[in-house]
Here is the input.
Amino acid sequence: MEKTILFPKVGKFVHGGDYNPDQWLDRPDILKEDIRLMKEAGVNCVTLGVFAWSTLEPRKDEFHFEWMKEIMDNLYANGIYTILATPSGAKPAWIDEEYPEALRVDHKGLRRLHGVRHNHCMSSPKYRERVRIMDRKLAENFGHHPGLIMYHISNELGGMCFCPLCAARFRQYLSDKFDHDIDKLNHAWWATFWSHTYQSFDQIEPPFANGETSMMGLNLEWKRFTTWNMNDFMMDEIRTLKEVTPDIPVTTNFMDFFYLLDYRKMAPGLDAISWDSYPEFHNDRESFSDTMYHNAFNHALMRSMKPDRPFMLMESAPGLPNWHEYNKMKRPGVHKLACLQAVANGSDTVQYFQWRQSRGSYEQFHGAVVGHKGTDETRIFKEVAEVGRILEKISPVAGTLVKARAALIVDWDNRWAIDDVMALSRRTKHYDKTCVEIWKAFEELGVEMDIVASDSDLSHYDVAVAPMLYLLEPETAQNLKGFVARGGQLLATYFTGCVDDNQLCYLGGFPGDGLQELFGVESEEIDTLYPSDRNGLVFEDGRVWEVRDYAEVLNVKGADVLATFESDYYQGKPALTCHPYGEGKAYYIAARVNAEQMKPLFEQMAREADIPCRRKPETVEYHLRAGEEGSYAFYLNHSTEEEIVEDVHGRDMLTDEKIDGNLILSAYGTAVIKLQNVRLQPL
Ligand code: GLA
Ligand code: ZN
Here is the structure.
């Protein structure tokens, strides 16, 4: 396996973060001190200009790039590279004054006034034009700067716009999608119901709060359109930059398993995936380990979008954020743990928001590497500097990859469709939670899992779990069948294969689209349980798994029954089945059982697929990164107790100690072990 170094100029991990010197241009002393402190903290890269539009172009067509040039020159002279942002995430006042169409309209039809950020209309030709002018100038001025390593497009793209321009584009999008034939759309959306038949595309409105919100097809298509339009806006920026400097890579900062954009549709236009991680550490609703694993789920989601290269942790909070409901400080040691978690999961960068704490306005109390005190004497600064030193020590790991043989199948369309459908319970659908918990259970068992789409190439995987795959995209059934036929172990759950990609129900029984043949079962009814209701899933040996929320009544059509329901009118009916299909096995669990209880099943699937489970305490997170010259095992202790991992053999790169047997991890402790004699099989 070759190494995939993201930034050959840097040649190792990127350590840095958002740098907003535009807030400090009247303080040359501070700007000078920044450089000294950056070097002390082991910062080798900054993200510059994310919200600098009003400093770069304070009035229309009056450009000021000289300050930015001075800063970039100075950074570069001191060995610090620049990721240059386009400033389209926040508009200067003159734009909104001159082009009101750039202001976003909300789902109640209300146009925003000037202010805040992340609120532009994605369709506005005038806004796009101003962005293009700015981006072109940035590329012309800085695209050939030796310190430049990447462009950062806008900031945390998100949200929806319901303005007339967006509505018109939506109609055009629909007309193109349905071959300009309104009857095709009416059929796909089952419009005869409640007499909702359209006579022309011109009658279609986005799902305004006081308008049409009852058509599942419309609601889903509007979300798809929003992704499409946001991507179109982003690609407009990327094209502009690449016209001038085709070789400078681009990214945009994603936000976890973000609800309103299907990031997988945006990934192809990006050279690397980056994201902003702000977990609520030490919250009082879940264990610290749960918070950590949930964050790791997001890392895995990002990693899996471009599995052939490392991803980037573009932002994280040194210390604490300021926008959570409760902003609790990270306990000593947690900063290092969280930063190494990103690296362990495949990130080649550790970056922060922001370098220097703002003196005023909305984020003045958000954590920063350099606080209001302005020195290196703070706990946070020291912890950041420690991470800088660690990243240096583990430099050989940069460019190596995490390779998983298990995959969790998670689709945005499916998630939106489940949340929208009038079925089950409004309170307990919990699609996201179900996915995260299954993923966490595999990781606790020491089985690495990617997070992929139902249409992803599954040929690298031997185990796959598809929770609640209610909406089947075209070809999904074929993909799953192919996976199992060639030897894969697949698990599907209740609420699978009910609708097609227009959210029209499959006729002829669920799961549809030929999946009954794969699983050897048919689902006849789905029962929703009240929160106080319970059922059980009983195995022949007497074990019982508790059932909550959902239970499906199955008819077996060739599958082996592994467990049955314990009570109610479907007592004794199949609840967990296994159907040998081709070389593999297709499991179906007809009820909601928490993932913790399902672990024996997950272990069995891994065993049958010949995937070793790395034995270790469950609160020790484990990942393996591998490349040409070696393999590196990461152990991250989520607990405040000392933990011991057995059977570790290699050199701890953090302490330089040789480990041959027990690895002892202190509270929140971490280890990066260069393994002896371990090579991953090339895929
Ligand atoms: C986001 C933004 C940053 C900043 C941080 C604060 O990630 O991209 O500009 O607002 O949140 O946590
Ligand atoms: Zn708009």
Q: What stands out?
A: Residues 545 and 598 are 8 Å apart (CA to CA). Residues 155-156, 276, 278, 315, 317, 321, 323, 353, 363, 366 surround alpha-D-galactopyranose (ligand 1) (CB under 6 Å). DSSP finds 17 helices and 26 strands in the chain.
